[in-house]
Structures are given as C-alpha cells and as structure tokens.
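Lab notebook, bench 4. Still working through the backlog of constructs that have no structural model yet. Next entry is a single chain of 564 residues. Request: give me the structure tokens for it.
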Amino acid sequence: MRKKYILIAVLLLIPLLLTGCLSNSGASNKNPVIKSLNLSSQTMRADESIDVSVQASDPDGDKIGYSWSATKGKVSGSGANVTYQAPSKAGTYEIKVLVSDAKGGKVTSSKEIQVGSNDSPVINSVTISPSTIQVGETAIVTVDASDPEEDSLSYSYNTTNGSISDTGNSVTYTSPSSTGTYTIEVTVSDGSNSVSTSKDITVTSAVWQKAFNVGNGQTSTAYGAIETIDDNYIVIGGRYDGIYSSSGGSYVMKIDSKGNQVWEKTTLGTTNTSHYLFIKEANNGGYVLAGESDNADKDFILTKIDSQGNESWSKEFNNGAYEYLYDFELTNNGYKLIGSTGAQAGSSDVYSIETDNSGSQLSTNTYITNLTGINKVISTSDGGYLAVGEKDDGTGNNNPYAVKLDSTGVEQWNYTYSTTGSYDRFNGVVETSDNGFTLVKEDRQTLLKLDSQGVKLWETTPSIASFDCKSLKLLFDGSLMMVGRARPVDQYQGVLTKISSLGSELWAKTYGPSSPEDNEFQGVVEISDGYLGLGETENLNTVGDDDFYVVKTDFQGNTDSFPQ
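Model written out:
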C-alpha cells in the first residue's frame, strides 16, 4: 500500500518538473535591444525624402530582423537603413520599426515627423529683349525666379511659333518666317511643384526704304521685282540719258531681305538701250525678263537669266512700228507678250507675240481696237483681251474708253466714261476673281468696277489729294493696290493706296520726304510678308537725276524712315 502512494506522488511530480524546465528555458531568451532610432531630419516638406536608421542588438547574440511602417508616406528599402518619403499633405506622422529575433523576442521604437507644405517657386519677372523683332531676328528671354525653400530650379519653355535655344533662366528666341504676335510660355520647377507664366513677342516684317544710285548720272527707274526662294528679291528696270530718252540700258539687281545689294547686271539684252518691266520664274528654271528696247522702233525684248543674273539668251522682236509692253504671262509652251502697237494710222491696237521656251517667236497677232491711244492691255481669263485708254469722240474731246476682245480679236463690248473736260483716259486695269474688271481713270484717279459684260457696278475716288496713279495691282486677298505719286506739298511722294474689292479705301500711305526732291512709284509687288514699292527718287543723286527706289512695307503699308 505504501508503494502505491509513492508511485502516485512520483507521477504527480513529473509534470511539475517539466513545467519548471520550460519556464527556465523561456526566461533565458532575452528580447533585442534598440539603442537608437535616427532620422536625418524630423521636419521635412511634402514629398521630400529622408534617411532613417536604427541601431539594435540582441543580448543573446541572435540574428535580428527589421520591419518598418509609417502612418502615412512610403518607406523604401530593408534592414537597418531605409528611406522615408513624406506624403503630399502636411501633418504630423509616425515612423515605426519592429526589431525581432528568431525565438520570438521583439521590441519596437517610433518617432514623429513633422511634414510641412512645399511652397511653389515664384516667378518674379519674365523679360523679352527686344519685345518686337523682325522676321529672322532673335530676342533674349530672361526669367527671374526664386524658391521659398531655396531649392534648385529648372526651366522649360514653349512657344506658339518660332524656336527656343539654350537652357536655364536665359534663352534665345528665334522668330519664324511669318509675322504676328506669338506667346512664349515659361515653366519653373523645384522638383516637386512648378509654376508657369507667359509673355508675348511681336514679329514684324523687315521694313526699309532704299535708294540705289545706279545710273552714273542717268535717270534710273525700278519697274518690277520677284521674291526668290531664298527670301531675297530680284529688281528690274532701266536707265535713261535724260528723261526717258534712249541709250540708257537695262538694270537688274538682287537685294537681300534687308535691302542690301547682292549683285547687279547692267549689260543684259540684245542692245544697251532696253529696260525691263516684268520678271517671272522661267518654265525651265531661272528667270525670264520682258521689256522694251529703247531704239527707234521701241520693240519687245525677252531675256532669260539664271539665279545669279547671268544671261542665257535674249531676243528682240521688231515689227516695224512702235510697240509698248503692258502684260506678260507664261504659256504651256513658252511665253506671251501683250501690248499695243501704232501700226494703224490714227489708232492704237492690241499686239501680242507668243514664243517657245527658248524665246523663238511662234506667232504674232494684231487686233484693231479703234482706241485713239492704249494705256494698258491685259490678257483675260477667257483667252481674250481688255484694252483701256482714250478715244476721240469726234469733237476733239478724248474720253476714257475700254474695249473687250475675244481670243480672235473680235469686239465683245466697249465702255465709254463720259467726261466734261476735253481730255481724260483710263490708265490701268485688272481682272478680278468674279471675271469683272477694275479700271482707274486719270482725272482725279477715279476707280471703276465693271462686271464681265462691261456694266458699271461702282465708282470711288481715293482720299489722297493730287494723286497720280501709275499702275493698279490685284492682291492675293482680292483687294486692290493703287500705285503712283502725290504732291501734297512742294514735291512728289510715292503713294500706295489699298482698296477693298467693294471699293472702300482700307489705307493710304505716302513715302519718301516731302522735300526737297521728287519720289514716285511705278509698280508694286506683293511678297510673303508685305509689299515692295518700286520706282524712282531724286533724293540721293547729287547730279539731280532719279535713282532706283525700293520700299519694303508690311501688310499695313508701314515702313522705316527714308534713308539720309
């Protein structure tokens, strides 16, 4: 019986002994110890990053691991060294680390971080110098910006037209080839926030007035021009001994976009007594010039040149009578020269010559008009002609007169403008897009619009007093340009007057000094960014004869001051 009690006591003691062993084993594993939790900064801005590290050890020498967390923001990396990126919203946040060993021992530590807002950069000013430039010129864009937190700044630029070169807070803007007002946008960034602003720059045409003393004591006049592929201009005309007498010679020059001479040619043509009135791009490359020789018969002349002004060939056409050239056009096979001839006694008739691409004559035609004098002939869109000038009414009075011919020279209609004076005439005409015609009358420079059948639609007179219109030009937008001279004070000035397709005056400008010398335009050419007025001036010629006068304007007729 006693043995039985002893056995029971032993059995009860064994679990107690086992429990004591386990408890002693757990108490022997000590938790890791965190010595320090280190932040590179406890204050930071939104979206900013800092370095975070923890120093920890295990009393038992066990291997320890790290687990990081934050109430907001992002922890990147692992181990004892990580990176914390603050959220985008300001506030007080906590970053926490848990250090543990493999036996279940663990310890935590945390610290608060103050996150403030990141203020955006401030653009104090944007300066564009100069704020108005001409086509092809540059301007400097300078940005004055700062950052409240003194962060480093970066700059980026955009523009609605043109280009930006260089980097940083000072860059170069290069204008486009077109005029207008364009916007330059500047964006400044501190890496987190950015701010933008914009400023406008105005690009204008390169405008100027130029006089060229090319005649060496001769009178020189510019009649025509063409814009070349390199944005320069070839200007044509003639030189005369005295006032439009013979033996002067042709003159052709190339000028750049600023009006500076590139080259000149003074010996083109079959004789040294010719002048050119029209220039076009040739069918087979280069340029073809059409004009008149100033010999005894005054014949048509046609000359082909290359891009450097070197003559390829030249042809003169003599029909035994005076011919005056008024129009020139390209055909499928060559060229067509249109003008007038005085071959019929007492009248002036339409005269045309067609050539091949080498200038060899293919055909010639003369059409009787019964005009006393022709001042302008044009080729019309239906293949016919319109001649304008004056006609004797049989009482000794000359009235402005226009006659429309078909392609064979048959009259289709005529129009007479009755006047009260003894002499008046039409001295210019253009065909408009509606197949009608606009004519200019010499007396008071009245402008008339006729429909395609010769019925008058409207009549108007420009505002500039004492206006002498030398030519009329149809512009690309359907409006008209009256070209000539006016005498508002003592001397003549060049005049450009723009008229709408309905006859209202859009603007009128005079050019050149009002004294002491005369200036006038003979023609105008519409170019990509404005107009070239072409004519003559006495202002720079010390011997008193006229010089080539070329004026570059914008589309509103504005230009630079007259050269001194």
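Notes after review: The chain has three domains: 33-116, 122-204, 219-461. The first helix runs from residue 2 to 27. Flag for follow-up if needed.
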